Every structure is written in structure tokens, then in C-alpha cells.
Amino acid sequence: MSKHRINWYKYAAPANFYPLAGKMIPVFAIPAAILFVVGLYVGFFVAPTDAVQGESYRILFIHVPAAWMGMFLYVLMAVYAGIGWAFNARLASMMATAIATTGAIFTFISLVTGSLWGRPAWGVWWVWDARLTSTLILLFLYIGFISLQSSIDDWRRADRAGAVLALVGVVNVPIIYFSVQWWNSLHQGATITKSSFKMAPSMAAAMLILLGACWLYSIAVVLVRVRYIIREREQEAPWLAEATA
Amino acid sequence: MNLIRYFATDRYAVYVWGSYSVTFVLLAGELFMLWKRKRKIAGRDNPGLDDRESQFETSLQESQ
């Protein structure tokens, strides 16, 4: 075991986190770009044509990762918002704010790509199905969180109000996930479960590589955004003048 | 798969390309908004920056 332990609490302070985040951005951004290229190559040139759905199934390589990201990021946002609220941790609240926009974009992508997949597969652009409706509610929760925070001038009050909405809304995430089991749904069940991959290995590889790319992209973008939020909120702090000089 | 042939003939092409186009336009849009925010913050922290940039552009145009 190493004698030198990292004091992680040190990085809860914006002054210490700001330079660390700056160093970490390329660590996530460069592999994200590489994985996007590799994932698209595997998805379009290696994965075979689906026997039932033809070429339209290739939409799922981006639809499924986007849908997962929308849910994961919401839970992460709620956890950060809750920590920020409970412990009065400024950086945690800033992280929640930074995650919201990226989460909303991925949720919107999942709805649009789902609709574009649904038209050839189901014959309709949209149905008021439990999975689709609960995902639409997730998008509204993101928009509500962003709008609520933007409408309050005082950062502390904005963070607290946003935390309440984020924590109440987190109940929607298990509803999205289990909706296909709890209700009769037009939407198909889980594609990848603990016991089985219901697809060819190259298809699963394309989806998982693009999921990795989406994760790395999200981390890089959130780190960039949280640095801007720190600069906006802590503009009077002396350490910031030194860090940005 | 021959991408060009697929793009031209497959009846699902518009849905597949539409999905990937929307995805990458939105992600590129997010990066663009972050770049704009960076410019705004840089302008606030260095009020003379925009002036210096515009002076540089003016001198560049004059030299041409």
C-alpha cells in the first residue's frame, strides 16, 4: 500500500478542484473522440445487417447509450445536488448544475433517435407508452432544473431549489428503467441483462464502445462547464485571479 | 457494407443518418455553447481583450 494517501476532501474546495479539472479534461476528451470514431466504425462497417430490422437497427448504437446517459446523469446530478444541499458543499452544487445541460441533451437525443427508430419499426413516430412518456418527463425534469436555477439570482437559493426538484424527480429514473416490466409496453425489454446479450458480439461491441465514448465525453464536458461555473461564481476570490493569470 | 450504396438505396437511410446527424449536431452545439461561454468569461475577466482583438483586426485590414 502506498505511504502517500491522496486527501480527496482537499478537492472538495473549488480552489483545489479548478486546476485538477483543467488537467483532467484532455484525459477524458481525447479517448472520447477515439472511442466515437472506433464505435462508429464497428457500428457501420463490422456489425452485420439485422435479419429482422435491416439497417434501421443501427440507430440503437446511439439511441441506447444516449438513453442510459440521460438516466445515469440524472441520478448523478441528484446525488451531487443532495450532497451540496445537505453539507452546504459549493462544488457539489456546481457539479449538479454542470451535469444538467449534458443530461438534458442526451435525453433529447434518446427521444429523437427513438422516434426515428420507431417510425420504421412500429410505424409511428410516437406513442404514449410508459417508457417513452417517463423519458419525456425526465427531459421536462432536466428543463425544470435548468430553468429554476436560471430564474434565481442568488446562487445558494438556486442550488437549494434545484436540489429539491432533482431529488423529487429521481423517483422517475427507476420508473423509466422498470416501465417495460411493470406495464404492457410497445417498447422492447432490456437488450443487455446480467445473464445474456441478446445481440451479436459485434453489435454489442459497437453499442458498448459508443456508451464508453458518451461517458468520457460527458465527464470532459462537465469538467469544462464546472470550471466556467467556478469562474463565474468565485470571480471575487483572490485564488482565482492567481489561477487564471 | 458499402456506405455510398447504402446511403443511396436503403429505405431506412434517412432514419439512420437523421439519428446520427441530430446526435452530432447537438453535441457539437453543446461544445459551441461552451466555447461562447469561455469567450464571455474571458471578456469579463480581461475587459481590454475585445478592444485589443478589434485593434488587431483593424491593423490587419489596414496592412492589407
- Most extensive interface: pair and counts? A-B, 32 and 24 residues
- Mean model confidence by pLDDT of chain A: 89
What's the main sheet of chain A like? none
Helix content of chain B: over 70%
Walkthrough of the structure:
The complex is a heterodimer of chains A (245) and B (64). The mean pLDDT of chain A is 89. Chain A has helices spanning 14-46, 60-87, 90-122, 130-151, 155-169, 172-182, 201-233, 238-244. With 245 residues, chain A is mainly alpha-helical. Chain B has 64 residues and is an all-alpha fold. Chain B is built from 3 helices and no strands. Chain B has helices spanning 3-9, 13-45, 48-63. The longest helix of chain B is centred in the middle third of the chain and has 33 residues, at 13-45. The radius of gyration of chain B is 21 Å and the shape is elongated. The A-B interface holds A 40, 44-45, 49, 54-56, 58-59, 62-63, 66, 101-102, 105, 108-109, 112-113, 116-117, 119-120, 217, 221, 224-225, 228, 231-232, 235, 244 and B 1, 3, 6, 10-13, 15-16, 18-20, 22-23, 26-27, 30-31, 34, 37-38, 41, 44-45.
Compact summary:
The complex is a heterodimer of chains A (245) and B (64). Chain A is an all-alpha fold.
Please describe the structure with a list of short key phrases separated by commas or semicolons.
heterodimer; A: 245 residues; mainly alpha; 8 helices; 74% helix; B: 64 residues
How are the elements arranged and paired?
The complex is a heterodimer of chains A (245) and B (64).
Chain A: H1 14-46, H2 60-87, H3 90-122, H4 130-151, H5 155-169, H6 172-182, H7 201-233, H8 238-244
Chain B: H1 3-9, H2 13-45, H3 48-63
